[in-house]
Design a protein that fits this description.
335 residues; alpha/beta; Metallo-beta-lactamase, Chain A; 8 helices; 23% helix
Length: 335
């Protein structure tokens, strides 16, 4: 697969829009009749909450209570705008909270940005309560670089053979949009969009800018194959520079760090990154805070505590300092 260049500056993004019965192309610079409501009332420029941090498959149990067992879902809020990153099982508790808020405030739009459509990133969507609330505008965005249209992928997991409610039966007004360009705006949040090729089937990373703060969500990518390939090429050098530019000086980077160094040696080509390499790349790019994300289902709370004790002081005392932490389900970061 050929890498995508990093060109920015597009004033709007065009999207193929599907409303379950028809497809049209229209601008993705969203001026909705109603705005998404924030997930908090703090005075910070941006608020990020982790609802699911685990990769591959959910891992309930006593050994994962601290860092969480739900698969990926993160909410980013600024002003009156909230966007949802990925729809793993973590979107269920988020949906419960949103549904409770809707009982008081009435339905309001939900914007879900999918990094890709592997199961651990979409499997919570059928359990997202706002999808069952009449009057909710539910907009789901994903890559156009798919052999099957996004609608058929998402609708397929709600086929009658797998789930009792089909997507066309949801009470919400569901529209599905495929990214065509590399920039969009949702409410107060500007979003840069960039394809990632070093993951089976590809994925997307997002850079969100609002209130002078930058948050990058870049999960499901094998950075080792880009920054430390067995045979460097012009392509890997280009991909490495694109990644550096994308995360440069981010206030918060949420990034794939699924494997230890020894684990990665046995799992090359699986599409995920080793912790030591991620930390080094993030620090060299001037990232201020790094949330290590997409935790391996085999890893326990005790393992993450050990990694934190090992690496956090090193980067806290580095020049420049970088705050490193392992993403925990339920925590909120204020910037």
């Amino acid at each position: 697969m050929e890498p995508m260049s990093t060109g920015y500056g597009f004033p709007v993004a065009s999207c193929r829009t599907t409303t379950l019965s028809a497809s049209v192309t229209r601008p993705c610079s969203l001026h909705e009749p109603r705005e998404s409501k924030p997930m908090n009332t703090e005075k910070s420029a941006v608020s990020i909450t982790f609802w699911g941090t685990r990769g591959s498959i959910s891992t309930p149990g006593s050994s994962t209570e601290k860092y969480g067992g739900n698969t990926p879902c993160v909410s980013v809020s600024s002003g009156r705008s909230t966007i949802i990153l990925d729809a793993g099982t973590g979107i269920r508790p988020l949906g419960i909270r949103l549904a409770a808020q809707m009982k008081t405030d009435g339905p309001f739009p939900q914007h879900i940005l999918l990094s890709h459509t592997h199961w651990d990133h979409i499997q919570g969507l059928p359990f997202f309560q706002p999808a069952y609330i009449k009057g909710t505008d539910l907009v789901i965005y994903g890559s156009s670089q798919k052999e099957r249209f996004l609608e058929s992928i998402l609708g397929g997991q709600m086929d009658v053979n797998y789930f009792p409610v089909q997507m066309k039966e949801l009470a919400a007004n569901v529209s599905i949009r495929e990214f065509e360009d590399r920039f969009m705006r949702i409410g107060d949040i500007d979003i840069d969009i960039q394809e990632q090729v070093m993951h089976p089937g590809g994925s997307i990373r997002f850079k969100m800018r609002t209130g002078g703060k930058t948050v990058v969500y870049a999960t499901d990518i094998e950075l080792n194959a880009i920054f430390s390939p067995d045979t460097p090429t012009d392509t890997t050098e280009q991909l490495a520079q694109e990644y550096r530019d994308f995360i440069h000086h981010a206030d918060l980077l949420i990034a794939d760090g699924q494997y230890s160094e020894s684990e990665y040696a046995e799992k090359k080509g699986w599409g995920h990154t080793s912790v030591p390499l991620l930390l080094n790349v993030a620090h060299e790019a001037g990232v201020k805070q790094l949330a290590v994300f997409h935790h391996d289902p085999e890893h326990s709370d005790a393992f993450f505590d050990l990694l934190s004790r090992q690496y956090e002081p090193v980067y806290r005392n580095a020049v420049p300092p970088m705050h490193v932490f392992w993403a925990r389900e339920g925590i909120t970061i204020e910037l």
